[in-house]
Design brief:
The chain contains 12 helices and 26 strands. By secondary structure, it is an alpha+beta fold.
Amino acid sequence: KILGYPTGLGALLVRRSAPSLRKVFFGGGTVAASAPQGGFVIPRSRLEERLEDGTVPFHTIIAARIGLKALCARMPPHLIDRHTFALAKATHSELERLQHANGRPVCVMVGSFQSQAERGGTVAFSVQTQHGAPVGYAQVETIAAQNGICLRGGCHCNPGACMAVCDLSLEDVKRHHAAGHVCWDAKSVIQGRNTGFLRASFGAVSTGRDAAALVSFIASHFCATAESSASTSNTGARGDLVVAKLTLYPIKSCGGVDVDSWPLQSNGLLLDRSFQLEDVQGRAITQKRCPQLCRVRCRLLERGAGIGIRVDGSPGEIVVWASGDERDCGDDAAAFLTERLGMAVRLVRGVDGKNSAPLLLVTEESVADLRDRMRKRGVAERAEEVSAGTFRPNIVLRGSASPYAEETWTEIAGENVSLGGLLPCQRCIAINVRERDASRHTEPLRTLASYRLSEGKVSFGILAAVRGLGKNASATLSVGQPLTAG
């Protein structure tokens, strides 16, 4: 890894009855959760994952001597040590000085740099808001990557140190695991507390410019000024609205279908995200992992009985039905999509692919404000590509009193329609996918992170639940339909 080698591919066949499967120890990457107290350890669920201790590149070890020799020829080890320590110490000091407009530190630093003998070329820290709430390490990592900066977040394979830094007890670790948190996921804040922290590492080729770029990035994206604190406040921003656009996404994370009028049920729009693509291990595939899913287009069959599926740039269409005896939509659908996407997939139906709520809404006013901010940041070309559809909403509303006023609403109502449980929608890198060619950009997430970061999450749009409809009841939602926010 030091020399940039991949860890390689390999296989080991082991009889299930072999004594070696009854492990009495574990290494990196083989557990879902652990703590140094009480012998608490939860192994990973799959057998092969429990056996893969560490990531030793077994067939590239031969390159280690040559690589280390070349590295040392560039700079003697004692000078590398001195160089990286100086960079890390300076970065630690600069991050420690950063303050929000109210005087609260932006970064909570881990450790100190008193002695070169006791500290290497790494800087450990976490980020907090002006109100003292933690900013999740996963969110900082994602935004940093969009800016060409590589940070590592998590427990860094050191659960004991992580518990000490984050002030977590054994019971906290157990509760976090019970809530679904595992070592490698992005759940970096649970119940208002960090589950890990950030680390910046310096090496022989790192420069003062690299260190300055990191400090500048943290300051520009996470330091609240008096102006930025006031820029997203919305008061009295409620009133009359109209449905400007209505879209459903029959296959989760694939292309949407615009409709003029469509049935609304207690779990959202009829057929919305009722299909999904899965890999050979049965895991859902999304645009976050596979951007080319935006090329998959759907056509609605009469009365929502099923969908016709095609893939941009490829001929042909295949029809699948919304109901069937089997969850899997069959070999023909799998072969059709596998060939056109270039990866092995299965199409399944009858799923509830809605991550957090039945409906996602955005306002035209908020989209317009974002595009204006992007133009001011010098990304006008990308701003022209960004639309309400970039955020994959079910409902686009027009008539909001001001941008982001939707975050002050508690309910939205209209004829036979009542929406409640309104919450900000947290955003990830999926919104950076360009639909025209399935490529990834750094925008609009980068601009959003500069002013829409709250409690460690970047938000845009709102999630809503449907109220007042029984399990088998439905209403109709239409473009042009008036709604009232309150």
